[in-house]
Amino acid sequence: MAGKASPTNSTTRQRKTSDSNGLHKSQSEAEFERAKKTLEMEREERAQLVLWKHPLQVLQYFVYETLFLGKALGIRLWRRKKTVVLCVFVMLIAYALYSLDGPHQTAIAAVQKRLLWYAYWVGLGILSSVGLGTGLHTFLLYLGPHIASVTMAAYECQSVDFPEPPYPNDVVCPDKEGEGHVTMWTIMSKVRMEAIMWGAGTAIGELPPYFMARAARLSGASLEDDDFEEIEELIHEKQSHPEDMGVMEKAKLYVHNLVQRIPNPLFDLAGITCGHFLIPFWTFFGATLIGKAIIKMHIQKLFVIFLFSVHHVEKVIQLMGLVPWVGKSMQTPFRDWLAKQKSKLHHKPGTGAATSSGNILSWIFEKVVLVMVAYFLLSILNSMAQSYHKRLCRAKHALQKAGLANLTKVVNKSNRD
């Protein structure tokens, strides 16, 4: 009958539809594989873009990236002219109050000293957290030694009431004899604010990757950066086991807090992961601040204070003598260092400190600091050059997509004609 389609024609149409879907699917898979190979090649090329392999290109890209970021910052400031003008006005008033003589200068000097001291530790914390693992590890270089020096001084002086000045720049025993009872809690209280400020700085250092990942997710950008390789595995896991990932998202505050408080490789991915999964800012930053500035810092303080308690230090130096062949020679520089540290604690301010020249441990520590600072600066140089390389690759992909879209429009128009 004319109103009914024959089974043969229906089967033929289904076969054609199936063939076209299969062809479309195979073409999509081929395009995806080509794009994936292109991204892998770009990542390999970017990994080779370091100063010791391509110095001229790295320096050139570093300059271009610096100019690009400076221009972007200028545009943002121009868009927020009112806020910028208000901030400048407040800064001028503060500078005028700071410059004018008067009885308020005593209070300003005290506040300035305290704020600069806290800002110093916040800045060191930020430096320790930035760079996805290449950051300057300022706990080992600055905060750890500061806690260790306060610990050794507390046990030697039997007090934590160090004279100010020279404390905190220099630790000296007070003239008044201590009570003879110093606990770990007393020492922790003495360095609590420095540790909290440093921990707050590390929490602030997690914000750039968080905002970067959040912006990429909201804009629908593909995870093509090197920093997102680990996130792709999480996305695949979420698609494969949505019920398991749902539990993690429900407990996101507690899970993220646990990740931040226990030293592990997830530190560097915490901001990226939370930003990609659109965890609210205050949930992310609050958990990070609690985990790093309070819980983790108290654990680290407790460890350093326990390790550098005077009886533990002397016990470690004593155990060094048991090392075969080199034990005795290892003991000598450490005994000298410990004796000089104790003598420095008892000199009076302004009478000349006991010099530590010739101490091999001090010389080694200075060189380690220089090497780590140089490596940190080098990593910034390489990272900015690689960031500019990413921009070039993205621009090339955008041009290719635009060209393909224009070509498709031309073909469709010619087919209609």
UniProtKB/TrEMBL annotation:
The keyword Nucleus does not apply. The keyword Acyltransferase does not apply. The chain crosses the membrane at residues 83-100, 120-143, 195-213, 269-290, 302-327, 360-381. Residues 1-12 have a biased composition (Polar residues). It comes from the Eukaryota. Residues 1-30 are annotated as: Disordered. Keywords: Membrane, Transmembrane, Transmembrane helix. This is Vacuole membrane protein 1.
